[in-house]
Amino acid sequence: MNNLTDRVGLGWRPDLAAGILEHLDGIDLLEVIADDFFSAPRRQVRALKTLAAQIPVVLHGVSLGLASSSSVETKRLDQMARLMEEVSPEFWSEHLAFVRAGGIEIGHLAAPPRCSATVDAAAANLHRAQAAVGAKPLVENIATLIDPPASTLSESDWIAGILSSSNCGLLLDLHNVLANGLNHGYDPFEFVRQIPPERIAAIHIAGGKFISAPDGTQRLLDDHFHDVPDPVFDLLEETAARASGPLTVILERDGDYPSMDSLLAQIAQARRALAKGRQRRMQPVEAVA
Amino acid sequence: MSSIQLEAFLARLYVDSDARANFKANPRAEAKKAGLSEDQCTALEKLDWIGLEMAARSFAKKRQLKRRPSWFAAFQLRLSRLRFLRFLQ
């Protein structure tokens, strides 16, 4: 145990509902996909409120496109604001991505060019989001199979720039860091060291799989269909050794669901990694470096 | 030239295989036709082509999953939602 009250929870998925509700004592909190409830019937939103009364809940958005160069749509911000008001989660989060442009829905999270223009655009969207929703979101780094063209900033500098301009906290997705590091040739541990540690408030852990590229090389796809690999737990320990505030860790799983025992074992492993990192943090600086 | 136009150009490449083929055949001309700046055209000529194809494939899969959940997946989802609602009553 550490004295920073770190917590480890699980992403709420309908397929996991029964297992989660049977094991609430082993899960510190739940992360709910907000977009699933934007057009949901009233009774489902009531059920979510009942759930939030039993266990801490946080909301996670997937379609706002906060790092888009275009202004985030008011209608979508209003939907998030309404849900926030009804559920009263501990916090909400969204991705640093664009998901639509020029009238085209991409269908998933895409990385914008990393440059000063998109730092400014993301900061403007985050200020609008705060004004509409009433609270700043934590912002999450995304995985990308393509290195975004016309980028003039490194990923860590780009994220740090947005955090600084918007004064938001970071939801650091460690599998995304691992995937981008492997796919685009940088050291994931060095990346974690470049992120301002005081900004890291929450963490995602997940698994993915290697897919073959047409040239025979392989890239890591962040599909959330696999168990959390060891390097992600190592990155979690490294993050815990550096972060100055309490951390909220969420295990994400979106398919090929394993048994609850397996998910609880991964939660337990995350707690061990956090504890090891925090222990390192207590040691003198020379020993940590 | 703005990042808005560049993002719109990228979005088109991600979802439209014909646009990708045209772009691959003549990157600079296609980027110029979209009104992108000289710097952006130059950057797009050095595009991560393999990453573009892989990303486009991954996005297409995501769109397909959102559009057409199989009847079994939809049934499972309803069933687990029902269980959840009953549990809370």
Structure description:
- The complex is a heterodimer of chains A (289) and B (89).
- With 289 residues, chain A is α/β, with parallel strands linked by helices.
- Helices cover 42% and strands 18% of the residues of chain A.
- Chain A has 10 helices and 12 strands.
- In chain A, the strands form 3 sheets. Chain A has an 8-stranded parallel β-barrel. A two-stranded antiparallel ribbon of chain A has the order 5-6. In chain A, strands 10-11 form a two-stranded antiparallel sheet.
- The two termini of chain A are 22 Å apart.
- The mean pLDDT of chain A is 95.
- Helices cover 83% and strands 0% of the residues of chain B.
- The termini of chain B are far apart.
- The interface between A and B is large, with 46 and 41 residues.
Mean pLDDT of chain B: 85
Q: From the alpha-carbon coordinates, what is the Rg of chain A to the nearest angstrom?
A: 18 Å
Widest beta sheet: strand line-up of chain A: 1-2-3-4-7-8-9-12
Count helical runs of chain B. 6
Count the beta strands of chain B: 0
Helicity level of chain B: over 70%
Report the span from N to C terminus of chain B. Answer: 57 Å
Percent of residues in beta strands of chain A: 15-25%
The end-to-end distance of chain A, rounded to whole angstroms, is 22 Å
Number of strands of chain A: 12
Largest sheet of chain B: none
